[in-house]
Amino acid sequence: MVLEQLEHLIRACADIAADDDIVVVGSQAVLGSHADPPPAMLVSVEADVYPLHWPKRADVIEGAIGEGSPFHATFDYYAHGVGPDTAKGPEGWEDRLVALRSENTRGATGWCMEVHDLVLAKCVAGRPKDWSFAENALRHQIVRLAELRARAALLPVPACHRESIAEGLEAREETRG
């Protein structure tokens, strides 16, 4: 997915949910901070979203422009309606959302997870694709290890999981050179 596609999804989600504030929590939220991140960080054809003021309307978004919908068949990308609890970002992540608003969103705002919070939320999920995303963010200097370390202490997971995440990020940073 590229920036113009995410802007299209934000516009469509806002129309469908009757909410001009759409939260983007999946990997494509990187586009809120970086208009042209490395292609390896943009492999997903879905954006994980929910309406800020009407989170339960994420189901309506999913039904209208989700996977397998006519929208998906037409454009080859889609919105995945999720809930506010989907992303397990560090404490305060909601206060650090990055606004993505342009002519292409027709005034609607995509509130994208800030990239450090996004990387950490993906590390909490812990799938191989999530760690690959984190590794690419480090390799291409999209994130700073010191900031990731500081925010990892604020993750809503047990201390042993926070430590494991910090160690995993350190190891990836060491091999980056």
Quick recap:
With 177 residues, this protein is an alpha/beta fold.
3D architecture notes:
The chain has 177 residues and is α/β, with parallel strands linked by helices. The chain has two domains: 3-114, no CATH class; 116-176, no CATH class. The protein is 46% helix and 12% strand. It contains eight helices and five strands; from the N terminus they run αβαβααβββαααα. It has helices at residues 3-17, 30-33, 58-65, 70-75, 115-125, 128-139, 145-152, 159-176; strands at 21-24, 46-51, 78-81, 98-100, 109-112. It has a five-stranded mixed β-sheet. β4 and β5 (109-112) form a beta hairpin. α1 (3-17) crosses α3. The radius of gyration is 16 Å and the shape is globular. The mean pLDDT is 96.
